[in-house]
Design a protein that fits this description.
Chain lengths: 480, 834
């Protein structure tokens, strides 16, 4: 062999070859590609795994609405607030109000409600696009949680417990089911380039599960993953030769050390890194979508461009077999302590069209039957006004409410057009068919063919579960 | 079984009775327990007090007495405040407290959140009214503590579990292959190996041994000259001498201090909330840990200071603060590391505070005791004989400092948002050494003087005025904040501790006093607590705990410590579950060895360095990491230690080593943490110093801005701590090392270093890269591969430069070398230690 033969073929060698293959390769029967850890037979890789029973959904798109969207201004009309507007109410709910000094009187919604579509679901005028799709969604009006502060409430809805350190819903799902796609992460997070949600990266952590199950952030512009593209300028040929050299050094190192599975896993992780560089780039390239599709999502236009891109990428990801996609929007746009009439509308304008487009697009591509779409935040808002220091009612908002909020699900296994549960006449607390956060978790797992009591991770003799020690009930009333 | 049942029955009764307040509960008094003694009051102060603690004493208690009123005892209620007595025994309708509560005036609704208090329930008001109606009876209720009477809840049989008995003396076995047994560790290991027909693996070669020892003790590789000197050294004690030299290296504390900081859950910020308040003084604790380990502070003393440093000496009335007193106080930072959002009123309620206390008990349990104490917070432990009572006895030990009804919040500067503030004190003490304080004062006085002088100047024109202002701003920027210590200290007036049934502070049960887990005692010795010095305004409870923890015959303290040392030297603990020595934990693979080590540790004066030396000079430690066919078959998981496990560098060792080989490691030690830079895409990188970058242990660890390198290589979130890191192999690691800009620039600086050392000859360069990065010369195959690669890379760079119209042969050679160095920095040979 001549002196330079190792490095001369353009795509020869291990890591080079990896670069040119293989978006559709089937790894089902192959060895675990990523994991080098995990005791016993506990899942520690991303190979697809059998659920507990026949699933309705294959993938989940979680539209997380950080901040606490106001239920009585979006989904849960309270006509009595029109009559009682201006009546003092604070004394009855002291201790449930984070900011007593700014508590005002009962406040009517600045938005008009109408019944929509065949099912006749009540939706506020702030959501004109979703209003046309309500026959596809099941609305839950009777959600409730346990803390009225963002951080603990976000921890709870994401991980089942009011504090850091636990695996999140998405991590549990990919721990239970693995992934259908070995060129992309199983659990992808599309966060907002404008800023992280409350609790930051802890929203997609794996907690005590192996780190392979944590969410991977894809940014919707630029390089989708931290360090996915080289942060230095050099000829592509140099990079290729270096990669080739590294592959050879690693194989040499490994050959001298038989029986060390870590080394095999390490080589596999470098190969996947190379594949992901291609696959992630492709999945995020929405320029491959038609103008009509981009238009439908509101891409290229304010205020929908940013969220529209993420919704469209989410569809491209589930199309490629990604199990769990989670979308965020920056800076708690739903946290309308002030100027609710304008700010809530602005939040809707950024998200309403993209979300309705996502539902339509999934349906048109036949993905709706296998994809569960989940919309909701961490808590709701109070029926009383929250006033600025100058007590100007035109700038009124609403404070946090842990006792009632609305969320919805659509797609795989969901009975569209359902309105489930009810709050009291003021919208202060869920009273009928109450749905707790563990119930909500159990329902999502159920649709994926997982039983919340059987999906556990054993440590220190305890079976740790997403729903913890709580009693959890699947919300059967929204299932098809 | 019978005794367990009756013990449960006893607890049940005790709880019921305490709740109903029907009789005084004293151990040994169980004769009248089942009856309602004649005339016994139905409601006592023990039902009323928890309500008042929950709703009232934050403003009417030890630190604030609004309206001159203290509601912590009946006598104080009778004395009353500015408006007179608040209770009239027998007459609830005439009692001011009932009037204020029923009318809703108290607790004042609009100030509830500010005080982190929930509204009082009508049932609670009625209970207080009933108590007053009954004449406000008081019953003397002794808190439940260990006494000379045998404990009904934990049996002697349960104490027989191996981990709950003191370590037993173990005879050192005699191995067949006695030639391999350098010290007793080998004898114990060989005994089990020989039982399955194995022996120790052959000794690793000398450069491998050296690299292994360097990484284990200092977290950094040896310099080429050190390797070459060691390889040439024919002294039979050369290896032992090298270990001794490493044990006295100041890098030791940086390596092993990091392990301890993981256990403590060290962080430079409070966490939990978005604002992630900084902890500007936490670094002193980090330095304390590093210095203590470098000084080989005996482990018992190390624990004593961290658990009860505030109760070791009177710092408040000391005329001078010496280093030892300072160290004592800084050490208590150990118990101040939990994530904490209680600085904000909305996340500062009693349940939030209980989370902080629970986290600290968890830290103590997992790091020091090897027990999952937290399981006993809501109910008796499911697997271990840890009744819920024992959890609350421990909570009562901490109560002098951690009192959920009298809470010291992390400091927030009022009006300026969430910035930690020193002036108010809060959780900080001013007792830095007198020398440091004087130096700071002198420096500050000088700056202030200069400022005053500038202020007094009368500027002639606008230009001069601006110049003066500029100088004043520069001077202000030079001023350092007052030096303070993030500490935990006993405040002398703990509120009573009631067991919280199901962990719920709204369901108080039995009144308990301070104590330690009964299963770790003989069950009939009271837990003796006394104030630490005459006239001390401290309970002395944590001091008693610390003294108990560090008794030579303690069943767990020494075992847990040596097991952790073992884990770091040999890859797996003798007890695999480092934090769980209980029944649900893994049983020891070598119980006699564990006990022998624990006793040896104590008899060597709790010297950690003696234990490092013992372990690292064993033949077991010096084995090769090669997996043999026999080894794979007979000892597949290496549970018998038939070989050295191959180990990936952890996040810190990798980062620090990248800096070292690139010649950019700034070895300035200690002090304030170095800041990080956060790129808009979320990449967090240490900002560096004038000389390069310091070791990662000196880089700021805010919970929300963990350096990306750390996070990628398994740095754990501290919730509340980490007893054993994961060792994962995931894609972001490959992406980080391949594509990260800082890593590449270090490769370029590595190349520059090599070229400075050996010039432009590719063969010499190649060899030097191997010596620096891998502590050995390249093999023939590596050399062939490397030369080809360098050649090929240089061609590609030459083409590149030529295409750009700037041909430069030397630059191409250096760029080729940088790419080669980058590949080595990415290679398994660099990341894995044999």
């Amino acid at each position: 062999m001549s002196r330079r033969s190792f490095f001369q073929q353009v795509s020869g060698g291990i890591y080079g070859a990896a670069l040119t293959c293989l978006l559709a390769q089937d790894f089902r029967s192959g060895p675990g590609l990523l994991a080098a850890e995990g005791p016993g037979n506990r899942p520690s890789d991303l190979k697809p795994r059998q659920p507990h029973f026949t699933p309705r959904a294959r993938s989940v798109i979680h539209l997380f609405m950080n901040g606490g969207p106001s239920q009585m201004d979006l989904f849960d009309p309270k006509p009595i607030l029109d009559q009682e507007h201006g009546r003092q109410y604070f004394d009855k709910i002291a201790g449930e109000v984070e900011n007593p000094q700014s508590a005002g009187a009962l406040m009517r919604s600045p938005f008009k409600f109408k019944q929509h579509s065949q099912c006749g679901m009540w939706v506020s005028e702030a959501l004109p696009h979703l209003s046309k799709q309500v026959d596809d969604i099941a609305l839950i009006r009777s959600m409730h949680t346990t803390n009225l502060t963002h951080e603990p409430a976000v921890y709870l809805i994401q991980s089942g417990k009011m504090g850091p350190g636990r695996p999140t819903l998405g991590a549990w799902v990919v721990y239970g089911l693995g992934s259908e796609c070995q060129n992309l992460p199983a659990y992808v997070v599309l966060d907002d380039p404008r800023g992280l949600p409350v609790n930051g990266v802890e929203n997609w952590q794996a907690g005590f599960l192996p780190p392979i199950f944590q969410g991977t952030r894809f940014r919707s512009t630029g390089s989708p993953v931290l360090n996915l593209r080289p942060d230095m300028d050099r000829p592509a040929e140099v990079a290729r030769v270096e990669r080739e050299l590294l592959a050879r050094l690693d194989r040499l190192h490994q050959r001298q050390r038989p029986g060390q599975p870590n080394l095999e896993a390490r080589i596999a992780s470098y190969e996947l890194a190379a594949r992901m560089q291609l696959a992630a780039t492709d999945a995020l390239d929405i320029s491959k979508e038609s103008a009509a599709i981009q238009e439908m999502y509101g891409v290229g236009r304010e205020p929908t461009d940013s969220y529209g891109r993420r919704c469209l990428i989410a569809r491209r990801l589930v199309e490629r077999g990604v199990r769990f996609v989670q979308l965020y929007i920056n800076g708690q746009i739903w946290d309308n302590h002030a100027a609710l009439a304008t700010d809530l509308r602005a939040a809707c304008e950024r998200t309403d069209q993209p979300i309705a487009a996502l539902l339509r697009d999934l349906k048109e591509r036949g993905l709706f039957a296998s994809t569960l779409v989940v919309w909701g935040g961490e808590f709701g808002r109070l029926p009383i006004a929250q006033l600025p220091p100058d007590k100007d009612e035109r700038k009124a908002g609403r404070d946090h409410n842990k006792n009632a909020f609305s969320s919805w699900m659509a797609g795989a296994g969901i009975k569209g057009g359902t309105t489930y549960g009810a709050t009291d006449e003021l919208g202060l607390a869920a009273v009928e068919n109450r749905v707790s956060v563990p119930d909500w978790h159990a329902t999502i797992l159920h649709l994926l063919g997982l039983h919340h009591d059987q999906l556990f991770f054993e440590q220190n003799g305890l079976k740790e579960k997403l729903t913890g020690v709580n009693e959890a009930q699947v919300v059967r009333g929204i299932l098809a | 079984m019978v005794s367990r049942l009756s013990a449960l029955l006893f607890l049940f009764l005790a709880l019921r009775l305490a709740a109903a307040g029907q009789a005084a509960i004293r151990a040994g008094d169980s004769g009248d327990m089942g009856e309602n003694a004649a005339g016994a009051p139905r409601v006592t102060q023990h039902q009323v007090l928890p309500i008042l603690l929950r709703r009232c004493t934050v403003c009417h208690g030890s630190h604030r007495q609004e309206g001159g009123l203290d509601l912590r005892a009946k006598a104080a209620m009778l004395r009353g405040g500015k408006l007179g007595p608040v209770i009239v025994p027998g007459k609830p309708e005439e009692s001011l407290i009932i009037e204020k509560l029923r009318s809703g005036q108290m607790p004042p609704r609009d100030r509830l959140v500010e005080a982190s208090v929930k509204p009082i329930e009508p049932a609670e008001i009625e209970l207080i009214a009933r108590w007053i109606a009954a004449g406000a009876p008081e019953v003397v209720l002794e808190p439940d503590v260990a006494t000379a009477t045998p404990d009904p809840l934990v049996t002697d049989k349960e104490r027989e579990f191996w981990a709950f008995r003191p370590p037993l003396p173990a005879a050192v076995p005699s191995a067949r292959d006695a030639g391999r047994a350098r010290n007793p560790i080998d004898a114990f290991i060989l005994e089990k190996l020989e039982q399955v027909g194995l022996s120790l693996s052959p000794e690793a070669d000398r450069s491998t041994l050296m690299r292994r020892a360097y990484f284990d003790l200092t977290g950094l590789p040896p310099e080429p000259a050190e390797v070459q000197a060691f390889l040439a050294n024919r002294d039979p004690d050369a290896y032992e001498n090298m270990i001794d030299r490493l044990l006295s290296s100041p890098r030791l504390g940086e390596r092993w201090g990091r392990y301890w900081l993981d256990l403590a859950g060290y962080a430079d910020s409070e966490g939990k909330r978005e604002q992630d308040l900084p902890r500007p003084h936490a670094w002193r604790y980090r330095d304390y840990v590093i210095q203590s380990l470098n000084a080989d502070k005996p482990y018992d003393r190390f624990l004593l200071e961290q658990v009860a440093g505030d109760e070791l000496a009177d710092y408040e009335s000391a005329p001078e603060i010496h280093q030892e007193t300072y160290d004592n106080l800084v050490a208590t930072g150990f118990l101040r590391m939990a994530p904490d959002a209680t600085w904000a009123n909305i996340t500062g309620y009693v349940p939030d505070r209980l989370e902080v206390i629970a986290d600290e008990i968890d830290v103590l349990g997992s790091a020091v005791l090897g027990l999952t104490l937290k399981c006993a917070r809501c109910h008796d432990h499911k697997f271990d004989p840890l009744p819920q009572r024992d959890y609350y006895r421990l909570a009562d030990i901490f109560k002098g400092a951690y009192d959920e009804y009298d809470w010291l919040k992390p400091d927030v500067r009022p009006g300026l948002g969430p910035v930690s503030q020193d002036a108010l004190g809060g959780r900080h003490l001013p007792y830095v050494t007198t020398a440091e304080r004087r130096a700071w004062e002198a420096r500050d006085a000088k700056v202030r003087q200069e400022l005053d002088a500038l202020k007094a100047m009368k500027p002639a024109d606008k230009k001069e005025s601006e110049e003066i202002e500029g100088r004043m701003r520069a001077l202000e920027a030079q001023r350092l904040p007052e030096p303070r210590i993030q500490a935990l200290w006993d405040r002398g007036e703990p509120s009573p501790t009631y067991i919280y049934r199901r962990g719920d502070p709204l369901s108080p049960g039995l009144l308990v006093g301070p104590g330690v887990p009964a299963v770790l005692t003989d069950g009939k010795t009271p837990f003796a607590v006394k104030p630490p010095w005459p006239g001390a305004k401290k309970t002395g409870r944590r001091l008693a705990l610390a003294r108990w923890l560090t008794r030579p015959e303690h069943p767990l303290t020494a075992r847990v410590a040596v097991n952790r040392l073992w884990r770091h030297h040999f890859g797996t603990g003798i007890v695999k579950t480092l934090d769980n020595f209980g029944k649900a934990g893994a049983p020891p693979t070598h119980p006699e060895l564990l006990d022998w080590l624990a006793r040896e540790f104590v008899s060597q004066g709790w010297s950690l360095k003696a234990m490092h030396r013992l372990m690292m000079t064993s033949s077991t430690y010096r084995q090769s990491s090669a997996v043999t066919a026999d080894g794979e078959k007979l000892d597949p998981d290496n549970a018998l230690y038939s070989r050295r496990p191959l180990a990936r560098l952890d996040a810190e060792a990798l980062y620090d080593s990248l800096l070292l080989i690139a010649g950019r490691l700034d070895e300035n030690r200690f002090g304030r943490a170095d800041p990080v830079q956060v790129r808009p895409d979320g990449l967090v990188t240490p900002a560096g110093t004038a000389r390069g970058w310091r070791r990662l242990i000196y880089v700021q660890q805010s919970r929300k801005q963990i350096p990306t390198h750390l996070e990628t290589f398994d740095f754990p979130p501290m919730n509340p701590n980490c007893v054993e890191r994961r060792d994962s192999t995931v894609v972001p690691q490959a992406l980080h090392l391949m594509n990260n800009g800082m890593v590449y620039s270090l490769a370029e600086q590595f190349a520059a270093r090599v070229s400075r050392a050996v010039g432009t000859d590719p063969a010499k360069r190649l060899e030097m890269v191997y010596w620096i990065a891998l502590s050995r010369p390249p093999s023939a195959e590596e050399e062939r591969l490397g030369m080809e690669a360098l050649d090929h890379l240089a061609d590609r760079w030459n083409e590149h430069f030529a295409a750009a119209g700037k041909p430069d042969h030397d630059a191409a050679g250096l760029s080729a070398l940088a790419a080669f160095c980058h590949a080595i920095m990415n290679s398994a040979g660099f990341l894995y230690v044999d």
